[in-house]
Write the structure tokens for this entry.
Amino acid sequence: MNNKTIVLVGQPNSGKSTLFNVLSDIKTNKIAVSGTVGLINSSVININANTYNVIDLPGIYSLNPNDKSEQITLDYLTNNLVDLVLNVIDSTLLTRGLELTIELLELGLPVVVVLNMFDEAEARGIHIDIKKLESILGIPVTATKAKFGKGIKELSEICYDYIEYSHKEPKIFQYTHHIEKHIQNIELAIKLYFEKKNISSRFIAIKLIENPALVQENIRHNVADLIKGIERELKEEHKLECYETVSYERHHHSMKISEEVCCYKERKTRALDEKVDDYLLHPIFGHFFLGVFFVLYFFLIFVIGSVLSGLVEAPLVYLADILAPVKNYNEFLWFTLNGAYLGFSGIVGIILPYFLPLVFLTSLFEETGYLSRIAFLMDGIFHKIGLHGKSVVSFVLGFGCSVPAIYSTRMIENRRDRAIAAALIPFIPCSARIAVIFALTAAFATPVWAVIIFMFVILIIAINGKILSKLLSKPIGLVLEIPKLKIPSLKYSFQKTWLRIADFTKDAILFLVLGSIVLGWIEYFEVSYYINLAFEPLVTYLLGLPKELGSTLVFGFFRKELILVMANQAMGVENLSKLPLTLNQVITFIVFVTLYFPCFTTFVVILKEFGKKVVLFSSFLSIFVAILSALLFKFVIDMLII
Amino acid sequence: MSLTEAPIEVRLKIKEINSGHQSKRKLSSVGIHIDDIILKHNDNRWGPVILENLTIRSNKLAIGREIANKIIVENEQ
């Protein structure tokens, strides 16, 4: 059955996703958006025995997108059949929110305005006359307190009535004469293209003046001369770019409406969250709180992760015992089943116990609004390596495991910064590589070597970041909204965690189990000899290591911690200290395995999140950097020993 | 004077925005326009500038120094 579609559109932090979760009762699916690689949340709701698709589009400040997620929203609105737009506005930021409302009305779609966080606005002394706003805009306006489920029933009724019975004619905002005449002229010239379209020709006419790049090539081409003339005229008249002139008019319209419908009561005292914010953003106290926050954050993840890991250990051992007899019955089957078991136990026993608290705590702190404060505090330092402060969270998570670190780059809006972060994260030693570094340096050298290697890795990340940021186009500088601090909802965070974990396990189980089965077959068919032969030029001739270490690199690609076990096995010794390696060889080996290739899971996650180009670039970059770094250490140690 | 040089906790009027087109668009979308009255909240030697738009009663905004240097303001008379 073809349900009618309701889409939620609003500026970031307007409470749009909270409203979506309340409306849909968290029964969410991810759907692919035509023309983009993004996935957005959708759900089916029931109002008065009628079912509707509800779609939560990424937050957008204006219909002139500045980043990928905003582009997804505009593409959806202009390319899909939409029966109703729920325009969610943070009631405390009515003036700015109305600028987007005016654009949505220009788009020609049926719109209902939802004044969310209405209670907060009242608490801040802002009273909004809803009836007056309704009559000015010519569309239904309703108030909600989505976080507490208030106003949802009324909203559902309005949606139902509006879709099924009455389509009010929304008010069309007239620009001043010198712009309006051009809009009408363009509309006449492009009318033919819009006979069967769901969006209005007026919207396209306005976009042709303020942002022609957003309009289809064929339409743009046909009115190119007309647009050039208008551009020249408006620039001469206003001494501003066309987009500024149009945007300022919308700004004035929304300010005028806001003045008419809002009544402000000045508060005598500052709100508690504003006072707390003074400390959180303070140049000294802010950094101190940030340090405490991160220590607490990782300590909690570590403690909860250890407890969960302990809980699943016994069932996993029991499962291994059940599989054990298969070895005597059919060896090939056992290697296959054991491979699958190792992949499964890797997810359930190692990744999930730490991923679960990580996702939950991240959901909680995302909701507080603290993330933008961290980005603000770290922006100066991260600028030195060509990134914005928003990337800091992913980098710190990388010390635990690269997989959640790569997933956390979703919080970075800008694709350029996300791609740089994804290329740099595999260089950060994850817990498995930290184990390799410590175990090998402890067996062969002093802890000073571990510290030297860590410092070197940080240097490598900084140099690569700097180079990548120079190579890629310069991003626009930081313009970051710092939303008001909020108390997070436990219920919502649990629901969000559940969704994210389900999404993660669905893909990870398939890839890790299949990968581990292949690993089992490599072991069964004893193909190590051929692997060593293939890697001999790199391992022996270039790095000066025993050729037997070649196969450990392949196992290390699947799981970094396997390097230790496989090195012993390959060289035929019982423990690491008996490996027939010199100090130079051990350090060269450590540096190479610390920096070479992301592990299989990270590889898959980068592929999924960023596509082929980024994963190939990241892999080649890490191999290149690993070879250069290992050779550098080999050369320097040789010199020192001589 | 540029926004980075401007005094803190004083009502300032935006006179010019001389940054690139993309930054201007981004500033406009978060509600920063010429003639708006703003308050600057911090005076650090490095790191972003925090401001609040009093004209539209906005949330706090962090503006990178590169862009802040190109926003020209004056004390509101």
Q: What stands out?
A: Strands of chain A lie at 4-10, 29-32, 39-47, 50-56, 84-90, 111-116, 126-128, 141-143, 262-264, 479-482. Chain A is about 65% helix and 10% strand.
